## 1
Amino acid sequence: MSQVDDDGKADVEDLLRYPPTCWSRAFFDTTCKKSSVDNNLTESFNSWILQARQKPIIKMLEEIRIKVMNMLNDNEAEVMGWGGEYSPKTLNLYNQFMRIVQKCHLNGSADQGYEVTEGSDRHIVNLGAKKCTCRTCDLCGIPHPHAICALLYKKQDPLSEIHWFLSKETYLQTYSHKL
């Protein structure tokens, strides 16, 4: 905190009142497989129900029910249109990672896995535990360049390592509950 000027000191003190799991990627929970965190849910929901909010409670809830029902149907139809096992967004990120793999070099196996360098960065990939010191795969559920490099070295298909949370089947289960 000694590097922060007086103007930012109050901000730092406010931030430090919260546990690092709320504001630092280094401490994010890896269960959800989402690499970004934001709290726009309330604002988005309020915007989504803007017209319904002005109505009496029963009519408002009925309109929200219909909006949710239509949203579930629309999302299910979109997922059914996916050409593969994973969403286009997931496959796009995977393909970006595959391009980065060309810049990675597997240095050999270490005690806990494989040592992979990417430029000046060096990471240890433990395929058995599905962990890497960069934590990218832990956060997003898609094999990142370091893991892909190790998987290709072992002659394994990196696509098979995409987390089941991101599969077409899981999305369809999410949208299968009808109102």
## 2
Amino acid sequence: MPPRKRPAPPLEEPPPSSKPAPDAKPSEPTKSAPDSETPTISATVLAKLPNMERQVYTLIFEAGSKGMWLLDVRKKLNISPNIATKVVRTLVTHHLLKEVSDVRHRSRKIFMATDFQPSDEITGGTWYHDGKLDTDAVSAVRRRCQAQVEKLGAATVQMIHNGILRDDPKAGYTIDKIRDIVRTMVLDKVLEEVKSTGEGEFAAVRSGTMCYRLAGAAQGGMMEGIPCGVCPRIDECSPDGVISPSTCVYYKKWLQMDF
């Protein structure tokens, strides 16, 4: 006789805590939070605005953090200066628009939706405060950059940036800001941009990489101070050749005179 099968055990009911409530709705998929960094125009606000104010507000809102010059508003909507000024001022009064200063064009009236903050392109970024250059902050970081170059002899922007953060982790300068400062120091002839040879003072910088050193530094003798000292084609250079001192733009720049 075959063995008898055991009856299946009774199904266990889920504990009360796991039972859905009688009127519970099915769970909805989780929605990601809207991007708070990208403001969207309010349909409610638009509905309350007269036609011309709605057009101007929409146009300026779409310009985002760059804002819009009042003259451009007039041209795009083909309206007179008086109407444009009146409409924009009304929107400013209602706190929908604001006037911002553009460090590049002091005389221009730039307007922006109050939902946005001006871009660095308009404010000047870290080195500007209330539309004015923060000369103290610029001088401080220039001193830090110069100190790193003096310490290293020759350094790339990345090396300068790393050195500043190593000395002061709370400095908070981005590499782009350091690059901007270094460029101004080159224009002011405090630093000079040179190509590394990978030797001597450039030992820490890969050969062929553009880097910076103190301007006018006579390290390594006179020949290293002029472009010829680091030129990879100096052996091909001759007075009557295709490559010659009379046609070398770097040599002319170093002499600061024309042949």
## 3
Amino acid sequence: MVIRIALIQLKIAGAREKILKNAVDLIRIAKKEKFANVVVLPESFNIPYSEADFAANAEAIPSGETSKALSEAASHFGVHVVGGSFVERDHEGKLYNTCTVWGPDGALVAKHRKVHLCDTNIPEKLVVNETSVFTRGDSYTTFYVGETKIGLGICWDMRFPEFAAAYRADGCDLLIYPAVCDCYTGELHWELLARARAVDNQVFVAFCSPARDPHADLVAYGHSLVVDPWGKVIQKGTEFQEIVVADLILKTLPEARSQIPVLQQKRADLYELVKKK
């Protein structure tokens, strides 16, 4: 089996309605012209990433405007849509950075709340304080496309190898991370992290970024990419709006795992991963 994945490196600027229309148009192109069966949007895809604007743009799931747009697009075009992330407000008023996944019938098949919130302070380059806005998620999130089990993370989740390893131990063959990564750390770590998560766990890894907007509060690095289980970058975008398409040749998984059987060679007498939830 082959999964054709399309990463929509979306330009995120202007009113939410305009951004959603652009996203739906690109989902259509990804399915109808690129023949993708999994389409991925970036983190904070329905509004520019700005801590000051998150609360005012929070929505309920699945009743909110963004959920309805994604559900209708998935159903209308008959494709799995990994809806990047947007701000969710729950019934208690808490805010989460949440990724939704919609099946080809328009049904909500998964919802991932960002587990690792980004608090970082790089003098004169970057200050982010997500814990002042969001509540942490506390669960792993998986879904299937055919027989392929897929694990979800959002941006900062990619920096924690134990989290990815737990997904691999749970049988995932593909990890998807919608992300807004700044240019400074993107240049240093973006490709490195994707390749590390892939080669450590012998899985496919996809990072989906927004397009770069030099006027944004947080300027995204771009360069959405897909890495195979050998750690090879099989597709990578530029910094502009585009659709990054890659074919995931699933027979690569048993080849890599049988030829370099590191998961069978782990020393459980010395160390082990404990998945607590």
## 4
Amino acid sequence: MITIHSEVSCSQLAKVVDRLFCYGITAMVTIDKFWKFLRTVRKKSCTELILCLFLLVLIPAYYLVDVFHILPCMYRLPSGSIWYLTHVLPLTFMVFNLLTNFVAVMYADSSVIGRLLTVTEYTSKEDTMYCTICQCHVPLRCWHCDICNVCILTRDHHCTFSTTCVGHYNRRYFLWFLLYLSAASFYEIILIGYYTYCRVTIKFSDLMVLVPFQSVITGFHLTVGQIFVVLLTLNLIAVTMSSLLLIYHLDKVRKGLVCHEKQDSNYDFGLMRNLETVFGEKWYITWISPFIKSKLPNNGIDWQSHVDQYKTK
């Protein structure tokens, strides 16, 4: 009996050690990716970093103003708890996806760094270009970014606000970020507009806050009316820009293109296939959270076999 107990204990101990080893490897990979991300961020210009921080601060600020000021004033608690939660729950869902997708755009790496690029994976050596900076043969649909100073797989464009390029592995997060930014900005216009109409008196002189030169002369003595004028203006700008960008990029996805490509039909596999190429196999539920794993049908390197695979189906 003692021997059996010892064997069981050793077996359990071995399983625990194996699990700890796996957790340690996972933690090391995660830390390595994090430091790689920090090194990438340090190379960005001050303008990009300021715009990125501006979004990361502004989005939670709007959320806090809504949850702790506007909504409690509109619906007296606890009597108006149901109406309060009716607004807070979808608002929290939108802000969560807005921030997490934005961070995922920055964190997901679509560059060629650390990836095995072999000529046999391409159509032929003649179809590839050699990048003298990255010192490698770049795959099809891969372009060098002068700002990031690296080649990006399936490069779409460089996003100034996220300080990174949108490519093969983070295009999904970028598109969902645009969608939630449009939805959240539209919601904020309605909510803040209604609150301003009911509770805030805006004078014509408050509109002068939109003229920076005038504000410098008169001094930064913001009134309540001026604050809400700024809040509404920022949302109007955000909903306009994000909606136009979303329409443009979704049209590219529909046609199986990236920004650098015009009317090339080589990678147009039909609407459902094109969505799967960008959002992954579980494209229909990736809107719920960026943490949902959705495997992409190809690796962004061997595009020719990906084309052959779909053409034969």
